[in-house]
Structures are given as C-alpha cells and as structure tokens.
Amino acid sequence: MSERLYKVRLKVNGKDVEAEVPSRQTLVDFLRDTLRLTGTHVGCEHGICGACSILLDNEPVRSCLMYAVQAEGCSVTTIEGLSNPDGTPGVLQDAFCEMHALQCGYCTPAMIVASHALLESNPAPSEAEIRDAIGGNLCRCTGYKQIVQAVQLAAENIAKGAK
Amino acid sequence: MKAAPFEYVRPESLAEACALLEEHGPDAKLIAGGQSLVPMMAMRLARPAWLVDINRLEELKAISIDDNTLTIGAAVRQCVIERDSGAQANLPLLGRALKWVGHVQTRNRGTVGGSIVHADPSAEIPLVACVLDATLVLKDASATSEVQAREFFFAPMVTAIAPEQCLAEIRFPTWGEARVGCAFIEVSIRHGDFALVSACAQVALDEEGRCIRAALGIGGASPFPHALPEVGEMLVGRKLDELAIVEAAGAAADLIDADGDLHATADYRRHLARVTAARALASAVEDAQ
Hints:
Helix content of chain B: 25-40%
Number of helices of chain A: 5
Strand content of chain A: 15-25%
Strand order of the largest sheet of chain B: 4-5-10-6-7
CATH class of the largest domain in chain A: Alpha Beta
CATH superfamily of the largest domain in chain A: Beta-grasp domain
Largest interface: A-B, 31 and 31 residues
Radius of gyration of chain A: 16 Å
Strand order of the largest sheet of chain A: 2-1-5-3-4
Oligomer: heterodimer
Number of domains of chain A: 2
CATH topology of the largest domain in chain B: Uridine Diphospho-n-acetylenolpyruvylglucosamine Reductase, domain 3
Structural class of chain B: alpha+beta
Shape of chain B: globular
Largest sheet of chain A: 5 strands, mixed
Strand content of chain B: 25-35%
Shape of chain A: globular
Radius of gyration of chain B: 19 Å
Distance between the termini of chain B: 51 Å
Number of strands of chain B: 14
Largest sheet of chain B: 5 strands, antiparallel
C-alpha cells in the first residue's frame, strides 16, 4: 500500500525547502531522513526527553511532537543553523566545549537549541532560569552542572561582544 | 514508533472543521498543539483515520475580557497566556498553573483547549477550569452548546464532548473583589512531569481579612480534576488562619477518592492532597494580603 503524500514548503536554516511527505512523518524524521540534517537527535519519540528540540519560528519545540506536514510555511532552525556562517562553532557551542558540557553528546544539540532560545529572550539569565529553560531536556550522563556553567559562560561571552 | 497512516486535512474555518467531524464521526480527530495526541498516535493508543488540524484557525485564538469573564479561544497556545498581560492580570491562577505545565518546548505548542479536552487527570489547566467552574463552549456543524467544567470530566481522557464537537472557547470567571489571592502547588517527580498531586486555591478577603469567597481543588489524585466547592463554603466568613486552613485541607483530603499507581499509593496521594491543599490556601491568603 503506498501512502498518500502531502506537499510541504518551509524554511530550514534559512533555505527554502519543498517536499512531499507522508502525513505521519514526524518533523524530526523529515529533518534527519529526508534533509539529512542529523544534528537533531531522536530520543524517546514521544515528547519526554527533549533530544529533538528545534526552533520553530524561533521558539523551541519538540520536533517529534509534530508532523512535517504541519510545518507548512514555518521557519525551522536546527543545530546546524546555529553555528557561525563560516561553519565554525557559535558562542554557545564553544562554551559547551570549554566547560566540558557534554559527555556522550546525545542531548547536546537540543540543549544548545534550548539555551539559544533562552539567551535570545534573556541575555543574562540566572542559574534558576537556565535550569528552567533546559528542564525539558534529559541528559543521561547527568552533566547538568557543566551545561548550566556553559550557558553562563556563553552569556558572559555574548555580553563581552562574542558572536 | 510511528503513527498509523491517516489522512491529514487543514480546514480554513471552524465551520469546515466541524463539517469534517460530522462527516467522519469517531474516525476523525482534531489536532491542536498535539503535545498529547502525537505521542498517543506514536504508541497507537489513538489511530484516527482523519487528522483535522485546527492549529491555524484564527477564530480559535482570541483572548477577550469583559466585566467578569476572561474568554480564551481553545487553540490559544499556553505560551501566549504566559505572556498575555490581560490574562495574567485578570486570571493570575491560570498563569500560576502554567508554570507547572510541561516544559518551555511543550508550552510553545500546547493549547489551553487541547489540555482540557485531553482530560489527563493530572493536568493543571483542567483543574483551574474546574476550580473556577469555567464555561466550555462546544460547537458542532449545526449547534453551539455550553457545559460547565465541573460537569465535563468523567474519567481519565473521558469527557462530555461528542466526537463531532469542537471546543471553541473557555470562559473563565474572574473575581472582582478588591482582595483576591491565588496559588497553584504541585508535587511531581521532576518539575514539569505529570503531577502526583496538585492543588489550587483562590480566595477573596474583606477588609478585616475574613473570607468572602474561596475555591479549592485537587488534581492528580483521582480520575478527574476535583473541585471542592463544599470546602470553599466552609471558609466563608472565617479568618483564614492556620486552624481554618488545616481544617479545610483535612476536609479536602477526606473528600477526594485517591487512586494509587506505580508512582504513588492512594494513601500517599491523600497525604499529598492535604499538604498541597494547605500550602495552596496559605499561599493564596498571603497573595491576597
């Protein structure tokens, strides 16, 4: 049985994308399997772990909790869209390396997406605000402390003019 | 995990959505934020043949305030309420409840109406709707009907809504007394997880600090959000001191029919009901000072 395909047009990391998708294809599967943007990870596939967090119209959402067809006309930013235009790591990515804020790295892209959204709206967050912002993201290496420190470092570096 | 195949349709109006529901009956399911429905479809606990996407219906996204009602469109996202100054000023209890609802990522998609019709017994928004006895406006292809939140929830994920109906808006009563305070307290394994037990309270005090009106409810403990108007009435005319609060919290814990499961026994939930009810009332009184 072949499934009906639905046309979807969206922007991904600034580029226009047009595709035909089965209705039941989640946005994260579309990003990874069709667009080969494998920086966004698939964890639990039912909205618990937060590993698939992306920015949808600049707001962090879980890309396993929507279907690709629903993203029609939306603008999606993945971890690949958060590095510098020349491909070097962005401030947050640098800070994560600097503070050893990753061990296995599985939760890292989504942690950076969540932290990026926080710093966009709140450039000088308190520790409690950082913990709240990443509260929907599980790290099973349990390295939360360094992740919080990395976000604090990134906020300081941004305040000093880092890009 | 993948959902079973379905036909996807994005109607242009609420009338068109209702027509689709009428046409397909129980084979169709509305999707708003999808924060509960998409996981249920992934686990195949829900297998709609037709998915009717109401995310973009502007007519379900209005927020309006009149004399003593705050009306919220069913598809208003939870994050919008968090940022809406009118909603925060007129219905602070909902804003306080939202701090316990999921995480940033889920509140950015999840809707006020979606949480109500999903009717998870541990959900915060249904509890607020019951405690304040909000009016739910339901539409189908031919009629509009109203049901009180306290009459809406029957059991986990079982409500008074018919398959051909769409929740259109929720009318929350706002309290006009000069001194009103409210609080929402929850105990969960991790902040943002499902509540083991939650309690919310709203009180209105006169100039001497005596209670004019009080509303209290317990969520998560029983199969549906449990508003306790009888406990509220117990408090009217009294100074809400420690003794009054302890008595009310005890009465609340006695009235609910607590359930046990893997995460907490019924006894523990009843204990938490008493503790959270007392904390919610005390915080609401403090908030009203």
